[in-house]
Amino acid sequence: MKQDIKSRTTEQLQEEFSLLSLPRFRAGQVYAWLHQKGERSFEEMTNLPKALRDQLAETCVITAPTVARKQVSALDGTRKYLWELSDGNCIETVLMQYHHGNTVCISSQVGCRMGCAFCATGLAGLSRSLTAQEMVDQVLHVSRDFGERVTSVVFMGQGEPFANFDNTVEALRMLNDPEGLAIGARHLTVSTCGVIPGIRRFAELPEQFTLAISLHSAIQTTRNQLMPGVKKFTLLRLHEAIQEYVEKTGRRPTYEFAMIDGINDTNPEMQALVDFCAGTLCHVNLIQLNDIPDSPFRPSPIEKVEALQRRLTMHGVETTIRNSRGGDIDAACGQLKQRRFRAR
Ligand code: SAH
Ligand code: SF4
User: Fold this and answer.
1) Active-site residue among 39, 84, 92, 269?
2) Atom 15 in ligand 1: which residue has the minimum CA distance?
3) Regarding beta strands 3-4 and 60-61, do their DSSP bridges make them parallel or antiparallel, or are they unpaired?
4) pTM of this prediction?
5) Could you identify the atom of ligand 2 that is nearest to the CA of residue 157?
6) pLDDT at 341 over 70
7) Longest Cα–Cα distance in the chain
8) What spacing in Å lies between the alpha carbon of 2 and ligand 1's midpoint?
């Protein structure tokens, strides 16, 4: 059987190459083709001798997802990729261009088990978790297809990263690897719906990765309805775990708050959010809920979003209103769907 060459570290490649009496630097060249350029064919590795390319092609395979569909937003150029994985499962990845660089939003699972009531991914359930390489491949191949460097990555596509903790951390380290895509740790952001054991483990990592928490309500009963999958991780304990994270790391977490008409945009909801945040190190991102099919929830009017921003700012809480991107191609937050069948 042919070997999966992408699963090898540089050291392993060097060792294997030296057993074949090949110079060590060839291993580094092959590694760069695979992990920096996302090359899919040995034939195209033009700085290698032809004999080596042929030898590799005979003994190894290069695993990579295939593009099942690609859409470009007419509104803002946001691109959405539907990938087919080796087992036929499909996942989505989104590329957003900003003046400061390119951000890729990747999936950490095929679907999601958390069942948040406002999220298209959550409504369809979980198929399986992704491997670290499957997470990294999304960035590698979007970058290759688009022909530009990716400057930041957010784990905000399909799935709950902390329900797939070890693979997520492995993917973060691969993305950060100077011999790979070399994306700065601070530019790698993981978003969780509030899985406390994950937050605690994340706080122990030596790297400066960024943490975002989907809050959506600071009132327990509302949050239970919106996010039933994290009911057991109460707001009180969540607040505690986040403050410990801040003390330990000195890093500033972000709260995501999608405003839903009549649900989390009322006076008591706004006050509860202010109370949750005031006096702590944090940044709040407000967005208007994105519409998803068959949902009873509607976005709050923009005036409410602005009112909440003023209120938070007044209490010293830094707050940004985010515009959703790629709404016309269902690429916006929460719109990524679980696809049960092969997309052809
Ligand atoms: N599972 C993780 C990461 C993926 S979701 C998490 O929940 O944090 C990325 C973000 O989109 C989360 O903040 C999520 O709550 C938000 N989101 C989900 N559905 C949405 C919708 N319909 N409108 C706006 N944001 C939504
Ligand atoms: Fe899962 Fe996040 Fe969607 Fe909730 S919001 S269902 S945790 S992907």
Assistant:
1) 92
2) 214
3) parallel
4) 0.95
5) 8
6) no
7) 72
8) 40
Q: Are 333 and 287 in contact (CB under 8 A)?
A: yes
Q: Are 337 and 120 in contact (CB under 8 A)?
A: yes
> What is the C-alpha separation between 320 and 325, in angstroms, rounded?
15
Helix (H) or strand (E) holding 139, with range, is: helix 132-146
Does residue 118 line the site of ligand 1, with CB under 6 A? Answer: yes
Residue 82 sits at the vertex; the CA angle it makes with 38 and 253, to the nearest 5 degrees, is: 80
DSSP-derived 3-state class of residue 117: coil
Which residues lie below 8 Å from residue 235, measured CB to CB, with a gap of 6+?
218, 219, 220, 223, 276
Closest-CA residue, ligand 1 atom 18, reads 334
pLDDT tens digits, one per residue of 218-229: 999 999 999 999
Is there an atom of ligand 2 within 6 Å of 193 CB? yes
Active site residue 306: no
Please, which pLDDT band fits residue 104 given cuts at 50, 70 and 90?
A: very high
Q: Which residues pair with 105 in a beta bridge?
A: 94, 154
Q: Bridge-partner residues for 267, per DSSP?
A: none
C-alpha distances in Å from residue 132, one per residue of 84, 138, 150, 169, 174: 16, 10, 18, 8, 8
Cα three-residue angle 31-134-56, rounded to 5 degrees: 35
Ligand 1 atom with least separation from CA of 292: 22
**Residue 212 alpha carbon, nearest atom of ligand 1:** 8
256: left (phi over 0), alpha (psi -120 to 50) or beta: beta
- For residue 246, give the amino acid letter: V
Helix axes 10-19, 24-35, angle to 10 degrees: 140
pLDDT for residue 291 is more than 50: yes
Distance 214 CA to ligand 1 centre (A): 7
Integer angstrom CA distances of residue 232 from 29, 145, 196, 275: 49, 42, 10, 21
Matching residue, tokens 């069948």: 341
Question: Active site includes 92?
Answer: yes
Q: Are 148 and 102 in contact (CB under 8 A)?
A: yes
